[in-house]
Amino acid sequence: MASARRTxxxxxxxxxxxxxxxxxSGPLTTPEETAATLASLHPDYGDYIAQVxxxxxxxxxxxxxxxxxxxxxxxxxxxxxxxxxxxxxxNDLIIYADTFAPEASAAWRRLLPDHEYFHARHLARGxxxxxxxxxxxxxxxxxxxxxxxxxxxxxxxxxxYGTLSARERAEVExxxxxxxxxxxxxxxxxxPAAWAHYGRFLPPPGIMSAEPVAARAPSPEADRALR
Length: 227
Ligand SMILES: [Zn+2]
What we know:
Layout: H1 2-11, H2 31-41, E1 49-54, E2 67-69, E3 91-95, H3 106-123, H4 137-157, H5 166-190, H6 195-198, H7 205-209, H8 220-226
Helix pairs in contact: 1-4, 2-3, 3-4, 4-5
The protein binds zinc ion.
Residues 15, 115, 119, 145, 148 line the site of zinc ion.
């Protein structure tokens, strides 16, 4: 499993985000707050995340909001400090004082830790979802990120986090779509028959983005159409 471990070290740290304004004073989030959020979403989060800590630096590095590291690690970008894979493996979650923009919704502040929870549990083989390497870093990254963004997109549609802003919702949909498309292209190029297996875990983005039927309020037009 060495290759798989190497893969997930490389692909897991980065959460892509738009540039955010620098904070003026005081942390906008803390490890304690993030841990409380995780606990509220998943009472079992400690089975997969050993600690939530600030990183080696106060402000987040370019290109990431948060990321997993192996126990005791400090920099999610450093391959030597990346998270470990294996059944029962626990990793640490690094956040930064400015992980969340001041305008981030309460829903986004729940979604982002949940995204990392998915990665941590996936690495620990806590889901019935393959944790594998495909021998190409970008394919591995697309696979794991599509799974993790798909997880939070589905839960966002279910309303678990509350209401995302339109921009936040679009960002999640875009990230899922991009990683889905990247991985789908890879499978079609390498071994199309394999999509029958992996596609089970990655629904088409259009389906993922649709609101659940139960959540839709019936409109008068729809009612008339039924008659
Ligand atoms: Zn991720």
